Every structure is written in C-alpha cells, then in structure tokens.
Amino acid sequence: MGASVGVGALVVGTSLLLIFALAVQTLDNRLDTSLEIIDDAGDPLPSFQIEDATLWEGAVLSVTVNSNGSGYVDGNLIATGTGSGFSGTFTVDAAGGIDTVTITSRGNYSSPPTITVDASGQSPTSTATFSSTTGNHIYANLTNMGSVTLPLREVWLFLDGGTAEDPTNLGSAYTPSIGSTNWYPGETIALDWSEDGPTSYERISLTAGGLSVAHTLA
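Predicted structure:
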C-alpha cells in the first residue's frame, strides 16, 4: 500500500514539474517577444519626400552607331525632329570612326529623332550614321528628411501605385548618379530613370521602412 502511494506521489510530482517547466518556457517566450517589440518601438521611423517628379514620354533612351564613319575627331551629337532638348558626345577610334556615344541630355520628342554629328570642327572622310529609340524617362529629386540611414536596396519605386510584383529598387542602375549603397539623412538623390514600359504614367510612389509617399508626374 505504501509503495503504491509513493509511486503515485512521484508521478504527480513529475507531472507538476513538467507543467511548471512548460509554464516557465512560455513566460520566457512572451518576455522575449515583448522585449523585441519594445526594441522595435524605440527605433526612429524613416522620413523622406519626393521634391519634384517629371515624366518625359519621348526621351531619347538610346543612340546606336550604325556606321562608324572615318576622319572624325571627338565631338558632339545633335538631333532633328519634332521636339527638342537632346545633346550627346562621342569619341573616336584610331581611324576617326565614331566609337562610343554618351547621351548628356535626353530631350523630349514625339518620335525618334534623327541623330547626326555637329559639323563644327569636323572633316570626315566617310559619314557616320545613327539610330535612336525614345520612351519614358523620369527625373525626380528625393530627399531623406529623417535621421535614419536607408540602404538603397530597401527603398522601392512604384508607378501609378503598382503592385507588389512590379517595384523598382532604388539601388539599381536606374540611379546612375548614386555613388554609395545608402541614402543618408539630409541627402537628396537625383533620380534618373528610364522606364521602358508602354504606359503613360501619372504618379510616382516611394516606399521604405513602412512609409510611403507619392507625387504627381509633371
């Protein structure tokens, strides 16, 4: 009889210890979660804004050298067409053939303009020819107004609201003037973004760290 009582007491005691251990583990988990929430609540929130935003629907996105020509020296490119604002430069190879082209201003045209060499100071022995493409290009100034340094890979751009499937990362090649991987407090980024979709957009949005802002495209 005494042995049975002892075994029963041991089983009850073991069960109570197990329940106590589970209760302690639950309290530990809740405490860890609460501490994480407190830590997150203490972090400063990001603050940024889109200062201005302009969409050029007929910007010159690319210039292709179809024929290099010969006898040129480094010089400038011009455009003729319905629109204005394009400018570019080029460099030449050992034979004076046009080797590389750099767009310095994209302009805005109703259709791809005709690109030619600015004849000033040139005496080519054969003529270079070019082709161009036009499309959407967005210029905007983005300012980090808060105290939080934002990694560019965590900042996203949307057009006309967009969806979770089609954001554009601010740290991509769409911002060629950015020389670092972070967006620092007080810094203004000049966005220079060729968006080659066929749609005419009305609004650009910027989101990071749970904050989203939008601006109408002029």
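Summary: Residues 62-133 form a domain with the Thrombin, subunit H fold (CATH 2.40.10).
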